[in-house]
Amino acid sequence: MLTGRRVLLVISGGIAAYKSLDLIRRLRERGAAVRCILTRGGEQFVTPLSIATLTGERVFQDIFSLTDEAEIGHIALVKECDLVVVAPATANLLAKMAMGLADDLAATALLATDRPILVAPAMNTRMWDHPATRANLATLEARGVHRVGPNTGWLAEGEVGEGRMAEVPEILAAIEGLLAGGPLAGRRALVTSGPTVEPIDPVRFIANRSSGKQGHAIAAALARLGAGVTLVSGPVALADPAGVRVVRVETAAEMLEACRAALPADVAVCAAAVADWTVANRSAGKRRKQAGAPPPVIELAPNPDILATLAAGPQRPRLLVGFAAETENVVGNAVEKRARKGCDWIVANDVSAGTGAFGGDANTVHLVTASGVEDWPALPKTEVARRLAERIAAAVQP
Length: 398
Ligand code: PMT
Hints:
Strand content: 15-25%
Bound molecules: ligand PMT
CATH superfamily of the largest domain: CoaB-like
């Protein structure tokens, strides 16, 4: 519940503004008070009357409105709230925020506020992919602005791609995470999950049995404690956890790149089963079977070690947690891996055939830290995730 919490919602000019009306309703159902700033662009998609009816408040649109300034004022507007939510956040408004412009009420309020800000970007895929938008986002995230979405799906232009505003339940989960004041509120977490796949040719690849269940459960558990979570996932058949930003990748090289882009983070948990090798002689065309010819030889080359790279990098997360998938000497190998890879904790699990660690719903793990080894009982992966998230929350307390 959000009883008594005050949200200032900035609605900018995108077709996704229609979802913001439902967001207002759902926030109010949860007991939150909602005030809205509607930009000139936003007004092209939703009306002040709809917003005023749903919020039960006047809608704020004009920085130079004498009435608004006399009665509330733009500084009071941003002070009298617990969270500023920008949904939809257009490429234009994100650019203004990154630049520190204050040429309308929305931009001025966003520059003037000292409250946490959550943005829900929504735009065309090419605008989203543009280096300018990515640089603006990176600037904002480095300043501590929280983000939910965008998702991949049908866009207004009839194309499929990344840029669709997060759905209302996802935005609500992110708001609840930030406002509920969980122990990880305001913290940023990076989680890797699932397998990576290394192409042999356009139709074949090398992969492994990771389902993503453990990594996704960890991302969800951290988000429930209030963290702003980026989940970098290899190909899995799981739904995105609510309130978590998901970046989909295929290869280990792509996963490393996505992890770097998600920094800085307070915590990183590397639960992905990253392929240790990639195919050095990957073929651009499909390898054909030739009658009488010997089978082709696949040459392997080492992949980058993502965990070790994060550990040695200039933006090393304060708490870095790796996993160890072992089939023998589980704890001994995990202790050695923790030292070799330079992470703080290792969660070790036995992935021998029959354990169900890969793909199953339960896991038996050993938490290896500088203080020693804890043997946890067999638990559902969701419970392993919940316990680990609580330990992480306790460890990153100021
Ligand atoms: O996805 P599920 O089906 O739920 O299964 C969960 C799991 C068994 C995959 C998970 O619990 C697990 O053990 N994940 C780590 C798998 C793994 O790659 O372990 P490893 O011992 O090979 O690697 C050690 C650590 O280094 C891991 O944190 C791994 O993410 C990381 N690594 C490994 C290789 C590499 N090139 N880069 C890495 O970052």
